[in-house]
Amino acid sequence: MEINGSINLVGYGLAVIGSGIGVGLIFASVIQGTARQPEARGAMMGTAWIGFAVVEALAILGLAFALFLT
Predict the structure, then answer these.
(1) What is the pLDDT, as a whole number, of residue 5?
(2) Environment class of residue 58 by beta-carbon count within 10 Å: exposed (0-12), middle (13-18) or buried (19+)?
(3) Please, what are the averages of pLDDT over each run of 10 residues along the chain (70 residues)?
(4) Which of 7, 45, 60, 62 could form a disulfide with 15 if both were Cys (CB 3.0 to 4.6 A apart)?
């Protein structure tokens, strides 16, 4: 059995799925926290945006590595 193509892109696809799950969990936690304690919304949103940026940066790095190693 011979596999043709680039397995790197499959890895990137898995990384994107993980990134999507991570972003969903981040903002779900912020929504739950805001529902429980509305006055802490500002602090939670700042932390959420930082977490969002880190998760998306990892996805972009995954894309760069997938295309670089192709």
Answers:
(1) 67
(2) middle
(3) 72 86 94 94 93 91 79
(4) 62
Give the 3-state secondary structure percentages of the chain, helix then strand then coil, rounded to 5. Answer: 85, 0, 15
Question: At 53, which CATH number?
Answer: 1.20.20.10
H/E element holding 69? none
Instruction: Give tens-digit pLDDT for 8-23.
Output: 778 788 888 989 999 9
Whether residue 41 contacts residue 27, with contact meaning beta carbons closer than 8 Å, is answered with no
Q: Which amino acid is at 12?
A: Y
DSSP 5: S
In a domain, 11, yes or no: no
Q: How many folded domains does the chain comprise?
A: 1
